Amino acid sequence: MSQAGWGPAWYRELGRTERRTFKACVAGWALDGMDVQLYSFVIPALIGLWGISRGQAGQLATVALLMSSLGGWGAGWLADRIGRVRTLQVSIAWFAVFTFLSGFAQNFEQLFIARGLMGIGFGGEWAAGAVLLGETIRAQHRGKALGTMQAGWAVGWGLAAAFNFVFFSWLPVEWAWRAMFLIGIAPAALIFFVRRLVQEPAVYLQAREAQALMGPRPSAWSIFKPPLLRITVLGGLLGTGAQGGYAAVTTWLPTYLRSERHLSILDSSGYLAVLIVGSFCGYMAGAYLSDFVGRRPTFLIFAVGAMVVVLTYTMIPFGDTAMLFLGAPLGFFASGVFSAQGPFFTEQFPTAVRGVGQGFAYNVGRALGALFPAMVGALSATMPLGRAIGLFAGLAFGTMAVAAWLLPETRGKQLQP
To answer: Which pLDDT band holds residue 55 (cuts at 50, 70, 90)?
Structure first.
């Protein structure tokens, strides 16, 4: 077995194919995260320049999440038929192109369409990347690998925050928000790496060969029939809580810091940096914890922790210094809720429908969770924005905790063709 010369011990145990797939999926998710999070930083500019309401700003966030649920389910179905690697390439190209085109929007309606189309690729990237990595990495390291992939989102978020600081500090606001979206074409370069160096998982190829001998492929609708129906429903409910709580916080937090805490670009960037570092640590902690104590306990720890911290952060009138330090645990728990979802869904669905099952369970959470930013924006017309964020995020993470309590454990499961 080829050995890597750097990284944690578990990573050095991986073979060349595992490492190449790991790098591609982490990079893909990080760049996907950058493109999605760019929007949260341009909301104040769009409200000021176009005169849109917070409700409309929430709709722009919601349409991307809603369409991502369709993209994720569709990409999962496609991954079961044309392959995980090819679907990943299409998804990366899709979200990069439509993020770029968002920078040319002239009004709310055009941006609404561009963000919706971007969402299709956004959802597809996770569905293809997570099942690809889950099937490639050996069972004892699957949680750490997929959790580290999720941590790539914090890296992408950090890149978006850095571009926000640079562009809004150096460019007029009417150009800065466009530059934010135009930089979103960068992930397209990753396609060449994926095409040349990443291979289809052996378990998928074996399953496809066996299926060709057995007859018709199982229907995509089989995930809605016993024995998979319970996992599909509870997994979707778990995803709804995680996605809804996270979206409510991350979509509106930059606006909350600017409009209600009255922080400058420089000051709010510091607060967000603490949040993002906390997020990265949360992803990594969840990654290791899911392999150490199991998927289900990890869900419970982070969901309950996120619910408590987000209510504390938004409901109690702390001073600016306390807010700064609370950003770390807020990011830690709100992001750590995702770390075990990739390995859990990979281990729950059979190979023949793993793509569509995993894509649906994760992304139906996006569809329902997508309503939360819009509801926060609408409710903020009648109450402070911070309170609206806390109300909906707390409800979402509480829902996740209930679903996690009802789910079975899958740690260490060996995948079968």
So the answer is: confident
- What pLDDT, in 10s, does the model give residues 243-285? 888 888 877 776 777 666 665 555 566 777 888 889 899 999 9
User: Amino acid letter at 83?
Assistant: G
51 vs 57, 107, 255, CA distance in Å?
10, 10, 15
Number of domains the chain contains: 1
Task: Determine if the peptide bond prior to 373 is cis (ω within 30°).
Answer: no
Residue 397 lies in domain: 16-198+220-406
Whether residue 32 lies inside any domain: the answer is yes
Assigned token pair, 344: 């859990």
- Pairwise CA distance, residues 56 & 374, whole Å: 8
Asked if residue 313 belongs to a domain, the reply is: yes
pTM given for the model:
0.83
The answer to the question of residue 8 being in a domain is: no
In 216-339, which residue ranges form alpha helices assigned H by DSSP?
Answer: 229-259, 265-292, 295-315, 320-336
Structure tokens belonging to residue 188: 């397209």
In the numeric block, which tokens belong to residue 18? 């595992």
CATH number at residue 107: 1.20.1250.20
Structure tokens at 31: 């760049």
